[in-house]
Automatic annotation (TrEMBL):
This is Sporulation integral membrane protein YlbJ. Keywords: Membrane, Transmembrane, Transmembrane helix. Coiled coil: none annotated. InterPro entries: Gate_dom, Spore_IM_YlbJ. It comes from Gracilibacillus orientalis. NCBIfam families: spore_ylbJ (TIGR02871). Pfam families: Gate.
Length: 396
């Protein structure tokens, strides 16, 4: 009976989507173009280098080296092996859903147990600095200093999520003896891992490009799909109805009802939600809190991307989702606590430690984001051409 119910729900949802696409062709086209623009100009060119490099690092055994190096840190803090340090840092640098991709890859390599992979994926899917500072803070809010506040709270709160999730399936933890770092042992692990991979250098490079672009094509499909879905929900007034319920919840925290609609959009797609929050007429503090919650929750679009990646393994999606809820709660509280000391103090003086440290990085990220907007599509098109060439050669 349960499976029959699922069949009815899936079929009905598909028919509904198809009907709405026919009923609102212009709106659907604009939503598709918006999603494609985000993917081709920013997401694809920013993630592709990280994905390819990560594949090479795994193939050449560097991840094994990093695993030995980070073991004394990752085990006590997060109850995961040292290779989790690679996923954590790469996830922060490249942004979601990189953490899920790298976790799944290491699980397939048997470098993580099921429980360890579920702990790791719960806190390694963060937004990258390019999106937080370049797109959200500078692109939407036109406020560089807000980017520093959002970045600090986003990554710090994600760290606390990792601390909390270390107790997930704690009774299933593997017995291990904490080892000190040894350069000799780390290099030995690297060497053995490289010898274990029998592929030639050309094969490794080709596979890295193919696997990376295939993952990015899936990500692009989800971005466009959820952009269209959000627009359809608006056109049939379902979004407005659900936003009314969100407004009631927001009133408990004395947040204006006008923030309900942007928060609803952000629950589906981060970019749209953050942009709508920036265009509302309310205090910067409330805007910052809601944007931080949206960034932490990841949106159903990113969550669907993560679910599709994890589906190739035995990693459960539930810990990741629980981590998103916890991340959103902690991030919102941290913005409220740090708003005055981090954001207001930077506006009042340019001589603070944080401003001096952060300003060069903010400027570099701004220049990088502008470069992606200008050259991103060319990079995407060129990479897709190379992908087709390599794929044809592998097939022949």
């Amino acid at each position: 009976m349960k499976q029959k119910l699922y069949s009815i729900i899936y079929a009905s949802s598909s028919v509904f989507m198809a009907t709405m696409i026919i009923a609102f062709p212009q709106e659907v086209l604009k939503a598709s173009q918006r999603g494609l623009d985000v993917w081709a100009n920013v997401v694809f060119p920013s993630l592709l280098p990280f994905f390819i490099i990560a594949e090479l690092l795994i193939a050449f055994g560097v991840v094994h080296f990093i695993g030995v190096f980070f073991e004394p840190v990752m085990r006590p803090l997060f109850n995961v092996p040292g290779v989790g340090g690679f996923v954590w840092t790469m996830g922060m640098a490249s942004g979601y859903p990189s953490g899920a991709k790298f976790t799944a890859r290491l699980r397939q390599e048997n470098q993580l147990s099921k429980a360890e992979a579920e702990r790791l994926v719960s806190f390694t899917n963060a937004s990258n600095p390019l999106f937080i500072i370049g797109a959200v803070s500078i692109g939407f809010f036109h406020d560089q200093q807000l980017g520093v506040l959002l970045a600090i709270t986003h990554y710090t709160s994600n760290f606390f999520v990792g601390i909390c999730m270390r107790f997930y399936k704690y009774h299933e933890r593997n017995h291990y003896s904490l080892q000190h770092f040894s350069i000799t042992k780390a290099f030995t692990q690297l060497h053995h891992a490289r010898l274990k991979d029998k592929r030639t250098l050309g094969k490794v490079l080709g596979d890295s490009v193919i696997h990376s672009i295939q993952t990015l094509l899936i990500i692009g499909g989800f971005i466009i799909l959820f952009s269209v879905l959000t627009e359809i929900l608006r056109e049939v007034h379902i979004a407005q109805f659900l936003s009314g319920g969100i407004a009631i919840i927001l009133s408990w925290f004395h947040i204006p009802a006008e923030m309900a609609s942007p928060l609803f959009s952000g629950m589906f797609e981060i970019t749209i939600g953050a942009n709508e929050v920036s265009n509302t007429n309310t205090s910067t503090l409330i805007k910052a809190i809601l944007v931080s919650v949206i960034l932490a929750f990841n949106g159903f679009s990113v969550q669907a991307q993560v679910a599709s990646i994890l589906a190739e393994t035995d990693i459960s999606f539930t810990p990741y989702f629980l981590g998103r809820l916890l991340h959103g709660l902690i991030a919102g509280i941290m913005v409220w606590l740090l708003y005055v000391p981090v954001y207001k103090s930077q506006l009042s003086t340019n001589d603070t430690v944080i401003s001096t440290w952060a300003q060069p990085s903010v400027d570099n990220i701004q220049h990088l984001y502008l470069l992606f907007e200008q050259m991103g599509f060319i990079v995407t098109l060129s990479a897709l051409f190379i992908y087709v060439v390599i794929l044809v050669k592998h097939k022949s």
